[in-house]
Structures are given as C-alpha cells and as structure tokens.
Amino acid sequence: MIAPSDLPRRLLIVSDVDSTFIGQEVIELIARRAGAESEVAEVTEAAMRGELDFAESLQARVATLAGLPVAVLDEVRADVTLTPGVPELLAWAAERGHVVALVSGGFHEVVDPLAATLGIRHVRANRLEVSDGILTGNLAGPIVDRAGKAAALEEFARAEDIALSATVAVGDGANDLDMIAAAGLGVAFAAKPLVADQAQRTLPGPRLDALIPLLENWTP
C-alpha cells in the first residue's frame, strides 16, 4: 500500500461514457429494439463530429424510441461492455485516492447501475420519460449537452473539494469539448478529429488505462 505521505495530488477524472468508458452508443442499442438503429447511428455520428446541435439531435433520436417497453433497458444494460483498461484505471485511481466520475449524453437508466457496480459516486446523464411502463419518445428534465457536461465537471470538483486545475476530462465527441476545455487536462480518447485537435492530449485507444502513464507524468 502507498503511504499517505507518498500520495500524489488528488485528481478528479471525469469520463464521457458512450464510446469512451463503454464500447457502445447506448441510444443505438435501444434503437435496435425499435428497428431504427441505422437511422439513429447516422445522426449520432454527425452529432459527434459537431455537425448537428446535440440537444436537437438527441431529441430526434429519442423520438424514435417511442412505444418501446421500459423493460428493453434491461436487455440494453446486459449488452454494455466496459472499454478495455477501465478496471485497471479504476483500481489505480482508487489506490491513489483519485475520484472518477461519469458524464453522459446517454441515459441515467443505463449509466447509474453501471456506476453503482463500479463504486462511482458522481454521475450526470439524461433521463428517458416513461409513462405506464412505455418510453414516450421524450426526455425528462434538462438535457446534458456540452455546457451541461462542463457544469457537471465543475460541480463534482466542488463537491470533492478538488481544484479545477486538478481535474481531467476524457471524451471522444463534440459534446465533450466544453468539459475538455474547462478541465485542468483535456484528453481526447479514440476521438473525432474536431476533438483531437482541441484537446491537450490525445490517446488513440483502445485501452483507457493508457491514461495512467499520462497522469503519472502530469503535474496539475
């Protein structure tokens, strides 16, 4: 075990979820059950490249899910796989007292159970509206967009009493750009060119624990 006196400065590591912390785009997994996966995947890809307004594109994609029973989310949760290197990154962070948080343009219904099994306390995501056990095709509550992700990073930092200069944001799409800019260190992971061009560091993937040597050699 590392002695407390040997611990580095405590960090807040905030990761995007879809195609960063996990290997899938959750909305596409849900849309598959509605027969709209191809249509939704095209819109998702354009939004990640920054070609579409995220909030508008998300609402359009969620609309295709109307009529699905909420029980399909159990199937979707079973389809989700962690990005290689996530367990190693979490173990490294826990040993050193760092905090890992998740922010997602996806959905609490899928992200929350995943975070709970991994011991992750801070999560911000969108929420699907449900009526009588059926997805309505709408969202409940405010949309977690670019600004929402950056605001979540700042909120989590305050809650953990960690300076913004000691925060790390990791993401792959245009929706992550504001939090990447707000963090002490912004990292593009297997990212779209727009994101790779604006992040301070880039990791090509496929393993998220490639972040470890980067952080071990970074001084906030």
Automatic annotation (TrEMBL):
Q: Does the entry feature the keyword Magnesium, yes or no?
A: yes
Pathway the protein contributes to? Amino-acid biosynthesis; L-serine biosynthesis; L-serine from 3-phospho-D-glycerate: step 3/3
Q: A Pfam family name for this chain?
A: HAD
- Reaction equations catalysed: O-phospho-L-serine + H2O = L-serine + phosphate; O-phospho-D-serine + H2O = D-serine + phosphate
Instruction: List its EC numbers.
Output: 3.1.3.3
Q: Which Gene3D superfamilies match?
A: HAD superfamily/HAD-like (3.40.50.1000)
Coiled-coil-forming residues are none
InterPro entries in the record, alphabetically?
Answer: HAD-like_SerB, HAD-like_sf, HAD_sf, PSP
The enzyme's first-digit EC class, named in words, is hydrolase
The protein's required cofactors:
Mg(2+)
User: Which key words are in the record?
Assistant: Amino-acid biosynthesis, Hydrolase, Magnesium, Metal-binding, Serine biosynthesis
What sections of the protein cross the membrane? Answer: none
- Which family, according to the similarity comment? Belongs to the HAD-like hydrolase superfamily. SerB family.
Q: What is this protein called?
A: phosphoserine phosphatase
* Organism of this sequence: Nostocoides vanveenii
